[in-house]
């Protein structure tokens, strides 16, 4: 059997690899000769870790996620999911797109939207139904499964997209500014939904956001990218216990200190940071 | 919602399903449906008035009411209904053939960037050639019978369906496709679950536009070929025997009525089946 992505394996199960979900080395991407989006990126994400990626608009965050998801071929560098090199769309990875409304299918009801990817997985109908129900429940949309996406508000549509990814039960979930287009209250609610299901399902999450507060509130580690072509400016560990709370966590000294550190870094040019 | 992208969407808008635009003034008086009937009645009365003046002798231009009466009589004659049936039969086969061919070829052209760039100029060039002009050639090649009619209808109705399929398939939202790919769907599953459903409204519009064109072509071909049977041959027969202008016009009017009927039937199906297309922006 030659599934895509099974060809090259890293030295399987050396201690270094055992706990590793994602490994990115020397990653570079140019859309064309004069359009370098990602200069050079290298980082790792451990199993079960929640990593947030922040960076200025247009720095290549979406490009990075598409590379990780196997939707784009990198110009250079390599990506490993666990111990397998990513050369096509890998198994066990789900992505929530920035343009959530375009990623939902308007001719399918909420339920069918969530179910569609599962129909191509080797799971039987009862299990499929159970997963759909559970993930809609998790995002608080169980009562809306018979509606069409366009009958829902933006925040609800975003939750459908999240539910679809959860039902897929990925090992790693990539989220591209998933809360960018909702109001502050909905945003806080959605953040807590993600924090909760992350604990519940134990998935590894890579979240792209340009909201520093959100990154610090949710993540175990924040990766700060420079402006395009992007490099890593810094990686800041966020040592705060889970579960976190919108009011008390955000008011804590620790939170305030980390967020201002990240804010300072995000303004610093890459050259200076890499010295 | 951003269905369809820039540039091409203008073309599609021309052929695309259009929502009934309501004139606010008239809307206060009558609803959409009764407004249509109202328009037809006004038009009929106007025709009746003009024809009753007999500016042209009634033998050339009969009264509107006598044409209507003739239509009613004809619709009760088996022989005439057989003409209608023959026309519809050739039309349906031709349209079905065209649909199968155009949708297949359209999917292939629309899903390959190279084929798309090569073929769209060709389609743009061939499409505006009026198919009616090819009727004499068709008669020469395939005679007067059913196959001639079917081939001409198929040819004429091919283009709008092909055109709409190509653009519908090519314009499928890349985000929707990437989403499906990221969930591990292969090419065929993406075609089935993403590309085809999202192109379906455009394909259907192409079929609806083609349906009317096909009807014109089949009647025209019957008329020019002096075919044995069909609305066109009925019109030719009654006009050549002289003094039956009411029958000639009645035959033509039945052809027109069929067109209206088919178009509104397909329009109704379109609005039901593709309701999601209209809902994106102004739900709630
Ligand atoms: N398909 C493409 N073809 C060519 N250039 C592209 C393409 N997609 C993105 N780019 C360019 O690559 C750079 C990075 O784009 P990307 O969308 O990854 O940024 P981003 O960090 O996600 O931005 P935002 O925060 O606004 O979402 C930008 O300069 C953009 O113009
Ligand atoms: Mg982006």
Largest sheet of chain A: 10 strands, mixed
Helix percentage of chain B = over 70%
CATH superfamily of the domain at 6-92 and 170-273 in chain A: P-loop containing nucleotide triphosphate hydrolases
Q: How would you sum up the global shape of chain A?
A: globular
Give the mean pLDDT of chain B. 85
In CATH terms, what is the fold-level topology of the largest domain in chain B?
MetI-like fold
Structural class of chain B: mainly alpha
The CATH top-level class label of the largest domain in chain B: Mainly Alpha
Give the CATH topology of the domain at 6-92 and 170-273 in chain A: Rossmann fold
Ligands present: adenosine-5'-triphosphate, magnesium ion
CATH superfamily of the largest domain in chain B: MetI-like
Measured between the Cα atoms of the first and last residue of chain B, the distance is 13 Å
Number of domains of chain B: 2
Low confidence ranges of chain B: 1-30
H/E element sequence of chain A: HEEEHEEEHHHHEHEHEEHHH
Low-confidence stretches of chain A: 1-7
Strand content of chain A: 15-25%
- Biggest interface, chains and residue tallies: A-B, 26 and 27 residues
Describe the structure.
The complex is a heterodimer of chains A (275) and B (284). Chain A is α/β, with parallel strands linked by helices. Chain A has a domain of 191 residues: Rossmann fold (3-Layer(aba) Sandwich), CATH 3.40.50.300. Chain A has eleven helices and ten strands. Chain A has a ten-stranded mixed sheet with strand order 5-4-1-2-10-9-3-8-7-6, sandwiched between helices. In chain A, strand 4 and strand 5 form a beta hairpin. Chain B is elongated and about 70 Å long. Chain B starts with 7 loop residues before the first helix and ends with a helix. In chain B, 78% of the residues lie in helices and 0% in strands. In chain B, 35% of the residues are buried. Chain B has two domains: 45 residues; 215 residues, MetI-like fold (Orthogonal Bundle), CATH 1.10.3720. With 284 residues, chain B is mainly alpha-helical. At the A-B interface, strand 6 and helix 3 of A face helix 9, helix 10 and helix 13 of B. Bound molecules: adenosine-5'-triphosphate (ATP) and magnesium ion. Magnesium ion binds next to helix 2 of chain A.
